[in-house]
UniProtKB/TrEMBL annotation, chains A, B:
UniProt cross-references to Pfam families, sorted A to Z: LacI (PF00356), Peripla_BP_1 (PF00532)
Gene3D superfamilies assigned: 3.40.50.2300, lambda repressor-like DNA-binding domains
Identification of the protein by name: LacI family DNA-binding transcriptional regulator
Record's keyword terms, sorted: DNA-binding, Transcription, Transcription regulation
PROSITE patterns attached to this UniProt entry: HTH_LACI_2
Coiled coil: none
Amino acid sequence: MVTLKQLAKELNVSISTVSKALNNSEEIGEDTVKRVKELAELYRYKPNKVALSLKQNKTKTIGVIIPDILNHFLAKVLFGIEREATKHGYNIITCISNESLDKEKESLQLLANGSVDGFILSVAEETQTKNEVEHFKRTINHGLPIVMFDRVAHDVMCDKVIVDDFDATYNATKYLIEKENRKKIAFISNIDQLSIGKLRERGYAKAILENTNYEPLILKINKNKDAQQKIKSFFKKHKPIDGVISADSASGIIAINTSAKFGLNVPKDISVIGFASKSASNLSLPRLTTIRQHAKVIGANAAQMLIERMQNTSREGDVKTKIVKTSFVKNKSTLK
Amino acid sequence: MVTLKQLAKELNVSISTVSKALNNSEEIGEDTVKRVKELAELYRYKPNKVALSLKQNKTKTIGVIIPDILNHFLAKVLFGIEREATKHGYNIITCISNESLDKEKESLQLLANGSVDGFILSVAEETQTKNEVEHFKRTINHGLPIVMFDRVAHDVMCDKVIVDDFDATYNATKYLIEKENRKKIAFISNIDQLSIGKLRERGYAKAILENTNYEPLILKINKNKDAQQKIKSFFKKHKPIDGVISADSASGIIAINTSAKFGLNVPKDISVIGFASKSASNLSLPRLTTIRQHAKVIGANAAQMLIERMQNTSREGDVKTKIVKTSFVKNKSTLK
DNA sequence: CTGAAAGCGCTAACAA
DNA sequence: TTGTTAGCGCTTTCAG
């Protein structure tokens, strides 16, 4: 990589002249500017990012800490973040916490040494279980803003982007009860430990308790266990289930596939609604009626909020929470 | 963030003393070291990464350019890269090319300004279609090593990590012909434009041509089109298909689900084998028999190769290609 | 119109 | 044992 110094030497001018010429300063003579620019072009000169960062004390880089990159929703949010960040001239450094508190702390520390100007993150499962937040607060106190999305820590004062998990699940459940006249609706989840899993469960439970005379019927699946088997025996035990709300996409799809094995026609005998993306909902036959989360929008919003905060160093304290509403997308796993 | 300067001032010593003390230099007196370390601890001093990078002319950062983060395989490779990089003290900056040549070029340029020490990438679709490689060569000539994985540009001299796409598909096809005695095996793909898609198709075709007396039977699905519909009409038109090899996971799963709609029993009447990850193969009932790609291993290997190359600045020219073999995982969508 | 110099935070050769 | 200085690549103020 060429440096200003080398250009200056070759042109027999000073470093500052070259710098100014390239930055279109008014001070420099027309022909000098031209000479400088031509040589710079020739050598494909690019100002060294590291030097710039040091000088200006900002890196134009965002640290993103994701619990699980194999989670389609989280990957999609990352996509949204990346696109928005790029649009504003920011790069992103990605760390994967792998749902571990220690790795999350470590990533935060590691990048808080001047590598990034701020963070976007979704809280790791272990962190939520143990309810630790000190590392977040410390980071913010050190002057690095954080924006949390989806799984957020409520007792940390920072900007947040969340989903209407509770309402969406409540409404979906009520839909099955009222519009489809379902009599025994179950809730299936493999994310019951997460804040969002709990919200979804509560939304379901509230709708059941308010509108029916039976108790909520809930199946919690450990992520590493055999979901197909679990769902099969659950269906058998609680026959006749005629509606399913799933908190995650895998459970919803497996529920549809399993129904067929039981001789149940979806949606005639049983309706299934689940949180899922479009690509996931296409994997079942009939297609899964879904609660769609607009992951890219969430990512873009988070990036916008962070960038805005990083630019307005002034007014602090007034943290915002943005709710990105889900959409209900009717496919063929429900009636009508 | 505290700086050495501030610590030095508070301790009434020089900056270099503080620096040396923190770096356990032999030169500094025991008690000075202690005093310094205590204050540093108190203020949670972390050496500024940017200043270090500038000084040492390396960033300990890897640029990763991925065509599509929503592709489960690519996300998994990214996971492998991140883990290996972190293990060696490297960060990763992620760019998503979105299968676009321009975005790929742009990302390469943008990060080649001192932001990263090298690149790991998988070639964008458009780049493969147009067969452009100049931007890769230029980057390498500028002193930034590249490691390509999965979709590679063969005419670029650089380290590569690839999969045995051809052999794996050839063997899987042969397996259906010989071991399962299938008489009409189709190939379904939504990635026919990609180098790896072509390799898989050729592996299938070779097995068919060598071992049967019919022509290869191939369905190419445009990614944005209705795969369910396409597969349905394909099945109808070419009845009786009794075997499917799918180049991507979605096609395989949809093929299984579609078979049921045709009254075909999987695997009794029709066998399906597809490239897929474990989590994807769990989404069909019966589970998809898969060609597993070990994405994380691919990522880890790529990271290792790059890190090694960045450290041995000396010997160049001798580029390596590593093949990470697939595994054949028998599930219930094939006989026996 | 051009150049010299300081400084961002750090390390390391050299001086004291 | 500690301090001074130069320099990584860049911008920017101030002198010329």
